[in-house]
Each structure stands twice: as C-alpha cells, then as structure tokens.
Amino acid sequence: MVRMRVLVAPDKFAGTLTAVEAAAAIAEGWARRAPGDELDLAPMSDGGPGFVDVLHAALGGELLAVTVEGPFGTPTPATVLVADGTAYIETAQACGIQLTKGEGAELATTIGVGELLIAALDTGAHTVVVGLGGSGTNDGGAGLLEALGATADVELGCGPMNLDGIRSVDLAPARARVGDVVLVAATDVDTTLTGLFGATKTFGPQKGLAEDMMLLVDGCLEQLAVATDRRTSLEKGAGAAGGLGFALMLLGATRAPGIELVADAVDLAARAGKADLVVTGEGAFDFSSRSGKVPYGVATIAQDALRPCVALAGQVLVGSREMRALGVESAYSLVDLVGEERAFADPAGSLAALAERTARTWSR
C-alpha cells in the first residue's frame, strides 16, 4: 500500500550534480527512510545546463551529436535534441562557464552557439528552442550572429572587447539563414543587455570580469546595441546568457520562461496534482530563486495544485519569511547537515542523506 506520493522535481546542483542525478539521489535517500512512498521523478531545468538532458528524458526524440567551436576556439562536443518537429539546444554546451572556468569573458565568443543553432536548423525542424543560462561569455551574441552570416565593420566573433568602435551590422544574411523557422529563447532571467541591471553588471563578476573591465565590456555592448536595435537591447531577457537573448531577439525569437517550457513538457502540473508532497532543489537557494529559477517555478505549480513544497539545497540563504514568499514550506541545507567539505566531496551521497532526514519530517 502506498503511504504517500512524492513528486521529486529538482534543478541541477551547479558544479556537482545534474538534475537527473539530483533527482535520483533524493529518491535514494527518501526511499531509505520511507520505502512505502511512491516517488515520481521529474528532473527540471530553467534553460541552463541540463536543459537538453531533462527534455530528452521527458520527450524522448533523437539526440544528434555535433562538434562546435568553444568560447576560446577549442572544438567542443554538443548535442541537438529533435522531438516532434522541434529542435532543442543548450547554449551552455557551447559557451558555458564550465568551459571558461569563470575567466576571460572579455575575449570569449559565442560562435559555437551559432554553429549549434545551424545544426538545429539543418534538421528541418519547424521550431528551434534555445535554452539560455550558465554561460561564461558576454559578447551580446555577436559570435552567434557572425556564425549565421551577419557582417559588421569589426569582427563579431572575437569577444566583446573587439566590438569597440562598431558602427554598422548587416543582419540580413543571419535572418535569411533562420528563414521561417520559429525561434524561442528559453531563459531564466529578466536582465536587459546593458546598464546597471544588464548582463555585464549582473553576471560579469562570476565570469571573471573585474570592475574596470566590466565598464569597458558594457560600453562595447552598448555600441553593439546602437549599431543594431537599441530598443531590443532593453527588452527583458535580452541580457540572458551574456546577451545571447539579445542576438536571438534580433533574429526574431520570442522569449519564454525556461522553467515554464520544461514544466509543460514534463506535464508537471498534472503530476503535482497527483502528489501529496512536492520536493524541489538547487545548489544555492536564495531570493534570486524568484527570478525564473526552478524552485520558485516548481513551488508555484505546487501551490496551484494545493500541495506543500519543500526544497533541498547545497546552501539555504533565505529565512523562513522569504522562503514562504517563494512558496516553499521548508528548505534544508546540505552544508548544514554534512559540512561544506563532504557536500562537495560526495554530493550525491550527501543529498541522499539530506533527503532521508527530510523524509523523517514529511513522510506520513
């Protein structure tokens, strides 16, 4: 007899566990404490790393292996998922921070993302969904535009600093390459391209940009915006993935919250309605989780289904009031349970242990 139905819907734990691995670890630990519970695993993504894997697990389809140019020119493996006439790609595979190691964003390019997009277009799909997030680049998508055929009075594929002095850009070849294909930019942030709350100022430090360098890079992206379409640069999501959102919007892409797209693909609302409890998680649970991140999206769906939601995280950086504002009843920290050293040394085992302890409180 099933004691309790638990929907397990975590994001990746950045740098340690994929969403699929995190869901499996939570299920393992929960089952140790409550073997009679029925566990429904729904790994999630907001468009960043793991986007393609999560959708492949949910939708099936065909995975196509390609090799593209990495952020510093190194050949880099990537995949295109094709399912029911739609191709899905993940920009982090071609320009992710795991490839730059958080350094050199002033010189890093998104040419490889453009090559990945071309591979998706070549499948003949009527729609291409581009997962944005986890990038180590900050070139406003200039490299992507060059890969698709755009030209300018400077080289577009040499990183943001090379955009200094740009005055004109011909986007017609890139737009022709996309043709009538529907482009969708799946993003987890509302950031604009430039300015105080733009891509550089918000995410530049984690990509290795010093304060003085951020001013220079932001100025170069401002020049790119003026040379193309400054109004588009002010759209929400234009600053996603170091400005890849902007480049895609220039090519006619519409924007969709990544978490909502994945939630629809895995039928999360219906699955939450059948559960007694929803468990989500991510590496760091803080108030920024409200900006399109997986825990907030999952918690919102749980609320709509009138189901409680709890979160497991590497670190919990919000208090109970903020937690409830995010729709989460309780949040539990790996670091608090096992310490930082063990949490990083054995992330799956530590997460399983945390899930086991959480089940003591929440399983009937």
TrEMBL record:
What Gene Ontology molecular function terms does this protein carry? glycerate kinase activity
GO BP terms: organic acid phosphorylation
Q: Which InterPro entries match?
A: Glyc_kinase_flavodox-like_fold, Glycerate_kinase, Glycerate_kinase_RE-like, Glycerate_kinase_sf
Check the record and name the SUPFAM superfamilies matching this protein: Glycerate kinase I (SSF110738)
Enumerate the UniProt keywords alphabetically. Kinase, Transferase
Pfam families cross-referenced by the UniProt entry: Gly_kinase (PF02595)
Its family? Belongs to the glycerate kinase type-1 family.
What name does the UniProt record give this protein? Glycerate kinase
